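=== Structure Prediction Worksheet ===
Name of assembly: unnamed complex
Input type: mixed (protein and possibly other molecules)
Chain count: two
Listed entries:
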Amino acid sequence: MADYTITNGKAGVPRQYVRGGLRIDIPESASVEEHPIVSGDYSVTPYFGLVLDSAPSVPPESEATIYVNLPVDTGIYLFGKGVHTLIDEVPRWPLKYSLYGTPSDGITFRYFRAPYHSKPPKREKHKVLARVRIFNREDEWIVVSKFLFPQKYYNMFKTEDGEVVGEAVDIYVESANLATVTLKNKSSQGRSSSVLLHGPQPTAKAMAHIKQNLVSIFEMRHGL
Amino acid sequence: MTFIEWAIANTEGLVVSAVIIVAAVLVSRLISTLIRRKMHGSYSDNLTKITSRFVYYIGVIMGLALAAGNLGINLGSVLVAGGFLGIVLGLAAQSSVSNLIAGLLLIIDKPFKVGDSIAYGDVVGNILDINLLSSTVVTWEGVNVRVPNSLLFNSNIQNYSNSAARMIRTQFTIFDTEDIDRICDAVNKKFSKQWYVLIEPETATFALQFNDYGIVMETRAWTPGATWLRLYKEMPRLVTETLRELKVEFASPKRIVVQEKPKK
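=== Predicted Assembly ===
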């Protein structure tokens, strides 16, 4: 069943995107397209976090690569004249939140739990592949049980096969309690032919709720 | 000696004084701009304008005083007159000055900003405006309360907007014949299903104490800062629903009325 409808335009009346109480006029030259998006309610938190079912261990001063299927919602975009704008987000997963750090000093994040894989896993519905490289700069073994990032900056990529994959993520671990999560602006598939499908574009209404100064690098300083 | 003769005799001093004044104006303007940028968005436009202008004029006055001193102008009598005037004004406007200083300290200390939800004393609401002498809080009943800044600065202010997460608690009483563990598990499970209840820290329900008619239970649940009101409003409903599902009654004082048969 379709989540939304697009009304037929008549003379002088533009086509409309309709979902629930939301109605948006579609200019004649524009088209409506669906693409996966990492999203959430920005009035609650702009952060997205993935808690791993089992935590990978990384030897001292070495790196490990894992793959996860990242849960995504559906972004509805208006495409036209080389410009695309996010007009709606259709939720595919229930909202759940958790706290990272302390109530006074930490952040809340949209919570997902997923297993990790050592090789790219089979694609699942409403999920995209994300490659996560963990660089352990510590001289001890470390265990990474979760990673967080600001969802506003997470990009999607389209491969030659037309498959949509998520952005690659690097985690630089400085100590057992400190790591930096960096969004690489590269496809998780690693092929140079991958093209950026769309940039992160929370709606203007959602942006109004973002109080923090967000950047694409997130410092995890309350543990891994 | 005419002014022109005096000016010719003190050309060097006049040039230095002019440089001091120009430098004072430029530095004051720079500081004033920085203050305006720093305060923009966090405080009302009015307060931002007043503070930046206040700092600007203080800087210019200091520059003028320095320039006058450089020219050998005796500021003693001016300062004495100013000091006397200051004492008179200070006594007359003691509370206003105290509010003014508190207002400046609030800007520096930033215990809250416009839009934050705060509570102090009996007043709970959102900050509408922060001005030099007073601030305005809109209570949740929609009433504007003007609060002198000195009162705010010296009070224990609880700022609800600064917390990433908040714990909300509710209490209910059950009869001591009930299975406490079963009720705790069911309530915790019910809360964990709500999207606005955090997964971590987990919801905790436990027996708190006895009272005259049963066991007082307490549920503590955590929610993102933005959704605390929702959880606050929903907690009693969630507990009531859970107890109904379990067919457990709330313990409440019961009065047993025995009607005796009338004696013949």
